[in-house]
Amino acid sequence: MRILVTGGAGYIGSVLVPKLLARGHQVRVLDRMFWGLPHYAEEPGVELVNADVRRIPEGAFDGVDAVDHLAGFSNDPTSEYSPDANWQMNAVATRTIARLCRETGVRRLVFGSSCSLYDGLDAAHLLDEQVSVHPRGAYATSKHYSETALLEEAASGDFEPVILRQATVFGPSPRMRFDLVVNSFVKDALVRQRLILHGGGRMYRPLISVNDLADAHVACLEAPPELVAGETFNAVQENYQVRDLAEVVAAALVRLGKPVALEDGPLPSIVRNYRCSGDKLRERLGLDFATTPAIAVARLVEVYERIPVEQLGHPKYYNIAWMELLESVRPAYQAMQNIFEPIEE
Ligand SMILES: NC(=O)c1ccc[n+]([C@@H]2O[C@H](COP(=O)([O-])OP(=O)(O)OC[C@H]3O[C@@H](n4cnc5c(N)ncnc54)[C@H](O)[C@@H]3O)[C@@H](O)[C@H]2O)c1
Q: Could you tell me if the CB of 71 is within 6 A of ligand 1?
């Protein structure tokens, strides 16, 4: 297939795209390239379209057989930074993409939604895809709108969206993020030799490794319609209480000769606490999410040790810090544009 991957240069996309290429697919990546060109840019079978999902260029859907939609703001802080931009790229653009799919005859679209839709529900219960959600905040609200838009567009019968409500992702990717709980714990342990448990670490978080999640995307893109068309799946390896997770990470680091202390800290401004079941996806597609956080720690340590320690705090690894930096240099960048270009005589 020729697969259009929006946001394919990001953390998840940088693991997904090489898997698609390895399976013989052609991949067209439509991305703003916020973090620069992806590592696979020169691979055969890859086409890069540097564009915004809010202004999809003509021809972007030409020859496309399936879409994987990952582009947009990808966490609460960036969505809250500009709720209007968030709404346009995380909600409105998804409906536009669904309509473009229908106009151009693309049946299959896999959407990177989020388990944050379950925010506010009782963590005493293991939540499945049937439960009624009442998302709060710009990010989760826009993901919910997108899900609804995709399912509405599917009512015609010639469109097969698959919604993946992704847990918080962990593990190494060529485009690394340190603002995700496991990745950030490992980084903090290496830099400061301590992990802070905000609010005592009592909150539950569903998690999945980036490698297992990318496999789930591939499976959903390739599955026969009777298994996935119009379906919503939680993509979850396991739910972890943050305190237990910190202990898992600390134990794995001690085994690598890197001791770390756990300390209690204040409650964070955004508290998320829910548990959800990944059984439906696992059973329907025969997936085995085998990578636990304990397994990922050793791989993360290898990645981090290749980065100079003073670089571990670089804004490029933290979406909100990078967004704020880009915004702060925008006037200077605009002032400098074309300054070194020769003037035509
Ligand atoms: N990483 C997680 O833990 C997680 C969990 C649940 C859901 N998700 C969702 O999965 C998707 C991918 O997440 P990620 O961790 O790879 O994020 P990421 O921020 O690393 O990647 C997002 C990519 O989208 C691109 N992008 C952003 N806005 C764009 C726009 N307007 N037009 C075109 N491209 C744009 C960026 O350049 C980037 O390459 C996101 O939709 C996110 O909301 C991620």
A: yes
Task: Residue 218: give the domain boundaries.
Answer: 2-170+208-236+276-288
In a domain, residue 306? The reply is no
Report the 3 state secondary structure along 163-216: EEEECEEECCCCCCCCCCHHHHHHHHHHHHCEEEEEHHHCCEEEEEEHHHHHHH
What CATH number should be reported for the domain holding residue 45? 3.40.50.720
Q: Phi/psi class of residue 31: alpha, beta or left (left: φ > 0; alpha: ψ in -120 to 50)? A: beta
Cβ neighbours of residue 98 under 8 Å, at least 6 residues apart? 109, 149, 150, 153, 159, 161
Return the SS3 of 24: coil
Number of the ligand 1 atom closest to the C-alpha atom of 78? 19
Count the domains in the chain: 1
Atom of ligand 1 nearest to the CA of 13: 16
pLDDT digits (tens, 9 = 90+) for 120-134: 898 889 999 999 999
- Let me know if residue 56 belongs to a domain: yes
For the segment 48-99, what is each residue's pLDDT rounded down to a tens digit?
999 999 999 999 999 999 999 999 999 999 999 999 999 999 999 999 999 9
| Cα distances (angstroms) measured from residue 245 to each of 83, 125, 206, 334, 335 | 31, 19, 11, 44, 47
pTM above 0.90, yes or no: yes
Distance 262 CA to ligand 1 centre (A): 30
164 falls within a domain: yes
**Closest residue to atom 11 of ligand 1, CA basis:** 70
Residue nearest to atom 32 of ligand 1 (CA): 52
Residue 38 lies in a domain: yes
